[in-house]
């Protein structure tokens, strides 16, 4: 949980982000904000030439900029290689994360056989079941749930009502946002035309687990289903936004970004450093290659090669999709044009015959 | 929570909705229902000529109708300006909302520094953190969570497992449905190719808040992320359906309706009185103008002007989309037609050359 | 909750699934796994010729196969009519479900007027309100909530933070996954231009209920809204995946499958044995007929006939959609072609006139 902001001198700020300061190192800075919202006493950042106007008009006292930005009157600059990253680091400097005191709240329900690290925090009403482990400095907020024999590593945060079902494994420095669900049963049924009470979808027991590697973030109300057999895996450093669905036996590689309301179907594989934009759907049993990017609302029905950019439903190479999107607006005109051509050809044919 | 229905005389009903009664004011009415489902003793409503048949066949004892509907044998009519609204008001009359007794349940966890209005209700297992405020007549159902320094106004209802994270501000008469999440971290990362342990998505601390104005309703499992810096805002009287995603720094104006499973990306602005239909996606940093309407499953990639109606993914003016949708069904035929034309032109060209 | 695996002899396995064994009945089998993942000592299954290669390369000791599969060296076969179903039954045999001890945990909150079957389990922090019923052998996991006068049948499982709101009715053998919400208010408002404080969306009280029939499974974070008046119904044996939205007054028939992130709008009807693939949207007040299938991400805007297969947004017959999808990729080429044809026709016209 980030705390209220503190104040820092510009010289210290430049040092913190290893930047080159063009301005008064003694200037006291109180906060951070976007170029448009920033006021005097604030630091902002300018990393995209698209926002040149906002940069020129900003009231910020200092701006984090790229290495080639020229000095400007009336505003201090801190030149860095990656202004966006430097801004993120300053936000962390100004709002150092706080952690509730270690210990188990008397109203938490911790099974005697569970192992809670003495530096961990288990807050009011949180539940840790039989045989579960919770690592050092991890925080279980009120209502968080860690199931039987599940393991949560060090320095994790489970926000209210986050659920980790039995036997699932969560690495270190993982954040599970409120009402996220790790390890619900995969959606697997075998149709049985001759059940005892007539036809039925016979439930396939989902006996596998979910394994979440280190440094993963799981958004609010995001669901990661346990494997039928084996593991559903979310790789190191991957970030899932809110309301995302990861089905059973999916494997997501490290460092991928899956945006809100996207869904990945059973046994699909998402590679390393992939970006799935919002509301994307990926069908089961296919592979989205490393560093691939999938445009918002796209439906991926076939393998995507490493590095490929695709869009559309069904998804096609992004360039083709752009062409097709542009063309589809011309469809009605095209219909007219073809009808007109047909008439002209008919006229030519008649005249020739006449 | 609405209670079981009571019974009312038709004269009182007409007075309650300020309608003109064509029928017996002493008739006792027991319930309300749709035209098809209503039985004798029920009131129904008829506001859309599309349902003329159902109106003519209804077994309801009385029907709320528009001002120009003619009297009909065997059924009492109550003429009003807005039959749908009148029906809603009667539902509220027949099922007056009840509220649990004020007070803090012994198993609730309320920090000593939190301020709970004496007329508020904090039920079993609900949590109110340090410095938080809960206003008069507000009800926190079991498992509801109000974070540090957060504020919940008067007459709010937080259903089970609703979460309001630290410092967020909720107005009065706000309803947060079960497992909704207000103030989870926005999805913000700065790629850092040179992290201590290799490449990483460096987490940008999300130090802003969510501000929900008065009379807002937030659906079950709907997520509204806190701003990176500043505020994510949902305006007065706006209603969000279930499973909606509102990203960080979004601003939704007053009186908008956002239907289930729609998502609004970071820093986008949604105006006043906007309707986003189900499963719509809005990309970041754009504006959907006042009174605009966006069709179901559309993907809004650019600004939408005030009052505009758009559909499709990417979204285009609704009329163009209707034309394009109709045309796309003809695409295969068009391909054939063009191939045939080409052959005919080739024939003409050969003959000319021959 | 499935337990850790046990070991079984192949003869017993064949008997359990009523299969014909080609192999050593005394062989001890320790686990189950997919064809590719299976190791020596495992049983796998092969039901789809698409996986012939994996079948031929598997290291499993035994494989469940169809009745016409030929014997193979080095691997025992168990011939059955439905290998997938037999595999599911073996998973249940190897991982028999366990149930926590019956009884009410001292930290659960059960109203004195609630009726809890003595064989039911109410775990830590679960809540059962006034007048609610919980049937035999049902398990309410920590944080599960059963509202006033609601009824939960026999042999149900409510995972952590599952919510059943007041008066809703849940049948027997129903599974509600974590953070699912049964009975939140439907999304119903009547616009009132002349509210006391200006224009408003007047809330239509949602006084109906949700009725969930026997053998239904409701995914994590799935929301089923209560009816405005009457019932929202999910029929016997229907399975809902995660993050699904079922709006007020929807009726879903028996034995349907609704995949993740799909949504069904108000008063729509979904028949018997229907499949809605992932991220499908169904508009309100229409009917999707029995045994119909709707492709992923489709938007159903009109009635779908019994047995029909549709795809696309808006949805059209699946075959037409395949043709249109294929054609849309050719759109840009078609535009070029038509322009070229126009020039050729112009040339012909000029020459004729010349």
UniProtKB/TrEMBL annotation, chains A, B, C:
Q: Where is the active site?
A: 248 (proton acceptor)
EC number of the protein: 2.3.1.191
**What reaction does this catalyse?**
a UDP-3-O-[(3R)-3-hydroxyacyl]-alpha-D-glucosamine + a (3R)-hydroxyacyl-[ACP] = a UDP-2-N,3-O-bis[(3R)-3-hydroxyacyl]-alpha-D-glucosamine + holo-[ACP] + H(+)
Which BP terms in the Gene Ontology apply to this protein? lipid A biosynthetic process
Question: One matching Pfam family, short form?
Answer: Hexapep
The pathway noted for it is: Bacterial outer membrane biogenesis; LPS lipid A biosynthesis
One GO cellular component term noted in the UniProt record for this chain? membrane
| Keywords for the protein's UniProt record, in alphabetical order | Acyltransferase, Coiled coil, Lipid A biosynthesis, Lipid biosynthesis, Lipid metabolism, Repeat, Transferase
Q: Which residues form the UDP-3-O-[3-hydroxymyristoyl] glucosamine N-acyltransferase non-repeat region domain?
A: 28-93
Coiled coil (residue ranges): 324-351
UniProt keyword annotation of Acyltransferase present: yes
The GO terms describing molecular function are:
N-acyltransferase activity; UDP-3-O-[(3R)-3-hydroxyacyl]-glucosamine N-acyltransferase activity
The record's NCBIfam families line, in alphabetical order, gives: lipid_A_lpxD, PRK00892.1
Protein family per UniProt: Belongs to the transferase hexapeptide repeat family. LpxD subfamily.
How it assembles, according to the record, is: Homotrimer.
* Name assigned to this protein: UDP-3-O-acylglucosamine N-acyltransferase
Q: Which organism is it from?
A: Corallococcus terminator
Gene, per the UniProt record: lpxD
């Amino acid at each position: 949980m980030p705390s209220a902001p503190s104040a820092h001198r510009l010289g210290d700020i430049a040092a913190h982000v290893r930047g080159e300061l063009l301005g008064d190192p003694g200037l006291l800075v109180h906060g951070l904000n976007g170029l448009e919202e920033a006021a005097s006493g604030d630091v902002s950042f300018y990393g995209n030439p698209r926002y040149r106007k906002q940069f020129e008009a900003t009231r910020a006292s200092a701006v984090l900029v790229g290495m080639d930005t020229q000095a400007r009157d009336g505003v201090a600059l801190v030149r860095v290689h990656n202004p966006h990253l430097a801004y993120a680091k300053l936000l962390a400097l100004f709002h150092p994360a706080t952690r509730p005191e270690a210990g188990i709240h008397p109203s938490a329900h911790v099974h005697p056989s569970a192992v809670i690290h003495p530096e961990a925090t288990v807050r009011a009403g949180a539940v840790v079941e039989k045989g579960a482990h919770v690592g050092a400095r991890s925080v279980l907020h009120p209502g968080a749930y860690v199931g039987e024999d599940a393991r949560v590593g060090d320095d994790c945060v489970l926000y209210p009502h986050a659920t980790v079902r039995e036997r699932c494994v969560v690495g270190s420095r993982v954040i599970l946002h409120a009402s996220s669900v790790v390890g619900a049963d995969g959606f697997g049924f075998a149709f049985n035309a001759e059940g005892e009470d007539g036809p039925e979808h016979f439930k396939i027991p989902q006996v596998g687990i979910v394994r979440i590697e280190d440094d993963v973030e799981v958004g609010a109300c995001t669901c990661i289903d346990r494997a039928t057999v084996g593991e559903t895996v979310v790789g190191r450093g991957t970030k899932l936004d809110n309301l995302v669905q990861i089905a059973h036996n999916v494997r997501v590689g490290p460092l991928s970004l899956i945006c809100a309301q996207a869904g990945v179907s059973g046994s699909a594989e998402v590679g390393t450093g992939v970006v799935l934009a919002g509301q994307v759907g990926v069908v089961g049993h296919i592979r989205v290659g490393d560093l691939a990017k999938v445009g918002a609302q796209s439906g991926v029905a076939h393998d995507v090669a490493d590095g490929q950019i695709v869009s559309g439903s069904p998804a096609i190479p992004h360039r083709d999709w752009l062409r097709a999107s542009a063309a589809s607006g011309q469809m009605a005109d095209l219909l007219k044009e073809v009808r007109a051509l047909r008439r002209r050809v008919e006229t030519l044919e008649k005249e020739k015959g006449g």
